[in-house]
Specification:
This protein is an alpha/beta fold. About 35% of the residues lie in helices and about 20% in strands. The protein has 2 domains: about 1-165 and about 200-225, NAD(P)-binding Rossmann-like Domain (Rossmann fold, 3-Layer(aba) Sandwich), CATH 3.40.50.720; about 170-200 and about 230-290, UDP-galactose 4-epimerase, domain 1, CATH 3.90.25.10.
């Protein structure tokens, strides 16, 4: 298939470009001009420099459109109203570009942040989203408005709700990356109590799941993209410690946790499993790459 990917220079985007290309698809990576320097490491058939504001000017014929690009996915920007609001505009432009280029399928990039805090197993059809930050609210808005616009444009709409994806990378901002880096530096990680449930998915499992959503003829709607291997966050941290520096200290409780803003990641993954997906990399194995 001929596939377009925005956000191609990010951690997820680069890995997805590689997965799709290695499995015989023709990939066009849409890159913001300011990220041109990162494009040299991409595995793609073609790169197009294009600001998100100008996505509708994209030319060519394609089958699937992955829209991974997102402003304000980390730090204080996650709660900035203006920054997150712009992502709604980019969703519209991406969908219209997909329609213009003849795509039959549009795949966005949802997030578990859409749910807010749910202390139970979350299902795509049963859990009621209640985001507590602008980032999650904007993702949820993009889901609902994107779905309606896709119907108007005659495009199949797929919304993977992405959970915690990890893997080897430089300057890793994730919790596994922080714990691994701090231990290697000979320091003690300062953590919240880490008593909430969590789900970590290795990067190669993530890209296989996304490829399946592009290839499977029946894929449509919301899918939890997660491993299904759920444990208390504390157990994952201890496992990283046991791999990198057995016996090292871990300062649980050094950081206070707000119960109203502490996610409980316990997704039901049966819907994507019904498409034939199953994870291949357990955390015990994946953590060794950190």
């Amino acid at each position: 298939m001929r596939i377009v990917i925005t956000g191609a220079t990010g951690f997820l985007g680069q890995a997805l470009c590689r997965e799709l290309t290695e499995n015989g698809h023709k990939v066009t990576a849409v890159i913001r001009p300011e990220s041109e320097g990162k494009s040299k490491s991409l595995t793609a058939d073609k790169t197009v420099l294009l600001p998100l504001e100008e996505l509708e000017s994209l030319e060519g014929g394609y089958d699937v459109f992955f829209h991974l690009a997102w402003n304000g996915s980390g730090g204080d920007a996650r709660n900035d109203y203006g920054t997150q609001l712009k992502n709604l505009l980019y969703m519209e432009k991406a969908l219209k570009a997909a329609a213009k280029c003849g795509c039959g399928r549009f795949i966005g990039a949802g997030s578990q942040a859409e749910y807010g805090v749910i202390h139970k197993k979350a299902t795509e059809s049963g859990a009621v989203p209640s985001p507590f930050m602008m980032y999650g609210a904007a993702k949820l808005a993009c889901l609902h408005m994107g779905k309606v616009l896709a119907e108007q444009l005659g495009i199949r709409f797929v919304w993977p709700r992405i959970y915690s994806v990890y893997g080897p990378r430089e300057n890793d901002p994730t919790l596994p990356g922080y714990v691994a880096r701090t231990l290697r530096e000979g320091n003690i990680p300062e953590l919240s109590p880490c008593e909430n449930m969590w789900d970590f998915m290795y990067i190669t499992d993530f890209t296989r799941a996304m490829r399946l959503l592009a290839e499977h003829p029946g894929a449509e709607g919301i899918y939890h993209v997660a491993s299904g291997e759920q444990r208390k966050l504390r157990e994952f941290v201890e496992e990283i410690r046991d791999i990198i520096k057995p016996g090292a200290g871990l300062n649980f409780g050094a950081k206070k946790a707000d119960a109203k803003q502490t996610c409980w990641l316990e997704p039901d993954v049966s819907k994507i499993q019904e498409l034939g997906f199953g994870c291949r990399v357990p955390f015990t194995e994946g953590a060794q790459s950190l």
